[in-house]
């Protein structure tokens, strides 16, 4: 049995459910809202790549790398995806990423609550010692979002990965440690409370 298994996580705004092949078409619609695959520094699938993207994620779940569809509770619409990946079971340390959302739900509390649900689960139910985040050096939107969670920058892996366009990526590494979770939790709850007052 893997340390992490498929689980459904429900909040006030979104429900995170294990990604399945039936989510391909809704995710095609979500990714078309903003055409995020056109961002050269992001690893976001195009509609044409979505089926293989989802199939690979479903297969990877057998190794304990759990991907989620992010569904709005009010409309039951899938608006993006996120996942635990490169899970280090021995050291109880997953990476959290492959996160993208339809442009229409950005800055609405969807990401804050999704991250809250995932981090609460991994720290409070699975006793992770740390959660790691990685992003492209030039993906300033992602870097700002990770830093706003309360993650600390560990360093930069220079010339770390070759991108599909042939460019070479510098990868920025962040983490949240187990003892930092209570403060991060308070920060996320405060942001979600502020967001609910604004809507």
Which consecutive residue ranges, at least 5 long each, have pLDDT under 50?
none
CATH architecture: 3-Layer(aba) Sandwich
Structural class by secondary-structure content: alpha+beta
Rg on CA atoms, Å: 16 Å
Round the mean pLDDT to the nearest integer and report it.
Answer: 94
Q: Find the count of extended strands (DSSP E, 2+ residues).
A: 8
In the CATH hierarchy, what is the superfamily? Gcn5-related N-acetyltransferase (GNAT)
Helix share bin: 25-40%
Largest sheet: 5 strands, antiparallel
Question: Approximately what portion of the residues adopt beta-strand conformation?
Answer: 25-35%
| Terminal residue distance | 42 Å
Record the strand order, biggest sheet: 1-2-3-4-5
Quaternary structure state of the chains depicted: single chain
According to CATH, the fold-level topology is Aminopeptidase
| Overall tally of domains | 1
Count of helices?
Answer: 5
The gross shape turns out to be: globular
List the secondary-structure elements in sequence, H or E: EEHHEEEHEHEEH
CATH class: Alpha Beta
């Amino acid at each position: 049995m893997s340390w992490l298994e498929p689980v459904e996580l429900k909040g006030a705004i979104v429900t995170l459910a294990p990604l399945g092949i039936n989510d391909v078409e809704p995710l095609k619609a979500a990714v078309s809202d903003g055409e995020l695959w056109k961002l050269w520094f992001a690893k976001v699938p195009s509609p044409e790549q979505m089926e293989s993207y989802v199939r690979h994620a479903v297969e990877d779940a057998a190794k304990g790398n759990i991907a989620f569809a992010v569904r709005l509770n009010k409309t039951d619409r899938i608006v993006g995806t996120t996942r635990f990946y490169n899970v280090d079971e021995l050291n109880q340390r997953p990476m959290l990423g492959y996160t993208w959302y339809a442009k229409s739900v950005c800055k609405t509390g969807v990401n804050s609550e999704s991250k809250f649900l995932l981090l609460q689960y991994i720290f409070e139910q699975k006793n992770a010692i740390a959660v790691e985040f990685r992003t492209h050096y030039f993906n300033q939107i992602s870097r700002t979002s990770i830093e706003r969670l309360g993650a600390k920058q560990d360093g930069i892996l220079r010339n770390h990965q070759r991108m599909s366009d042939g460019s070479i990526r510098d990868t920025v590494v962040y983490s949240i440690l187990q003892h930092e979770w209570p403060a991060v939790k308070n920060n996320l709850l405060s942001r979600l409370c502020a967001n609910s007052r604004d809507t």
